[in-house]
Amino acid sequence: MSYLTAKQFAQRWGISERRIIKLCKEERISGARKTGMVWEIPEETMKPSDKRSNIYKYINTEKRIMIVNVKEEVKEHLIQLLKEGGYIAECESLDSAKNNLQQYYEGLIYFPINNMNNKEENFIKEFSNKLNSESSIVLVDYKKENRNKIESKLSNKLQNEIGIRINTLILDIDEKSNIIINYDEMAEDIINLLIKFKNTTGTAITTDVGKIEFNKNDRTKDLEIGKFYKAINNCFKKMNKESHLWCASTMLEDEWTESAQEMKFRQINLEAANRGVNVERIFIFSRDKIKEFKQNKTLKIYMQSNIKTLFVDYDEIKEKEPNLLKIVKEGWDGIDKSTLIVDLPEGTKERGYISKNAKEVMEAYNCFQKLKKYSRSLKEVLK
Question: Cα-atom radius of gyration of the chain, to the nearest Å?
Answer without folding.
Answer: 26
